[in-house]
Amino acid sequence: MNIEELRDYCLSKKGVTEGFPFDQEVLVFKVMNKMFLLTNINKDLSMSVKCDPELAVELREQFPQVQAGWHLNKKHWNMVAIDGTISDNQLKEWINHSYNLIVASLTKKLQNELLNM
């Protein structure tokens, strides 16, 4: 997966927007204005995704490419090096997991707005 494929996949999800809220290097994807994925466009490709805390630890133990999120709550965020050793399907699964966690945390009103987009 390259940066264009990552971007296209994230933007294909319902209610997703992108932006640079921190600086001109960190591209952030949000669903209903809540972050679910961050990536630095000027470094080796990686992504930070939200993760269930127990799963986050399991993934860090199982995959050397997965580490605690940089500058994020390490209990809930993983940083994944996208170096070609993890399949695109696995990366998409982690993106979906992050997206779904954020959607589940939205108010019922926002969830309904998302459903009706």
From TrEMBL:
Protein species of origin: Ancylomarina salipaludis
InterPro entries: YjbR, YjbR-like_sf, YjbR/MT2646/Rv2570-like
GO molecular function: DNA binding
ATP-binding found in the keyword field: no
Superkingdom of the organism of origin: Bacteria
PANTHER family reported in the protein's UniProt record: CYTOPLASMIC PROTEIN, CYTOPLASMIC PROTEIN-RELATED
A Pfam family reported for this protein in Swiss-Prot or TrEMBL: YjbR
Database matches in SUPFAM superfamilies: YjbR-like (SSF142906)
Keywords, ordered alphabetically: DNA-binding
Gene3D superfamilies reported for this sequence: 3.90.1150.30
Protein name, entry field: MmcQ/YjbR family DNA-binding protein
